[in-house]
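Why does residue order matter? Because the sequence determines the fold. Keep that principle in mind as you read this record.
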Amino acid sequence: MAINWRAVLYGFGTQILLGLLSGFVVPFTDFALPVIGAGLAGLIAGGVAGYYNNRSTMSDATHGALATIIGALIVGIVLTVIGTLVAGIFGLGAGLGLLVLIFVAGIPGAIGGIVGGYVHRGRGDAAGRPTA
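Structure:
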């Protein structure tokens, strides 16, 4: 399967933007339930990647998960560095725990990729129609 890097880049940019600003997008979710903020950002970023990819369901899911995981990895690195500078070793420990969330973020990214591909609706419509 060929990777559409433009679709991954769009989803990656969306993931970084929403990942860094998720506290402003969904207020208080980072304090109460940080998984909801990361999951919602992953769902939206995966949807963007799937929308721009628009090839097949499996391809859209792969592109959504790939964009979300790469974006979450960059956001995790940035937040780990900032947390380590501010909180010392506690920030580093919290950042290492974030690695689990990065791989879990691929699940909503894959679901968002499937939904984004179907929202675009560039495939599957002509498959069941008769010609005459």
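Helices lie at 5-20, 22-25, 29-32, 34-53, 57-87, 89-104, 106-120.
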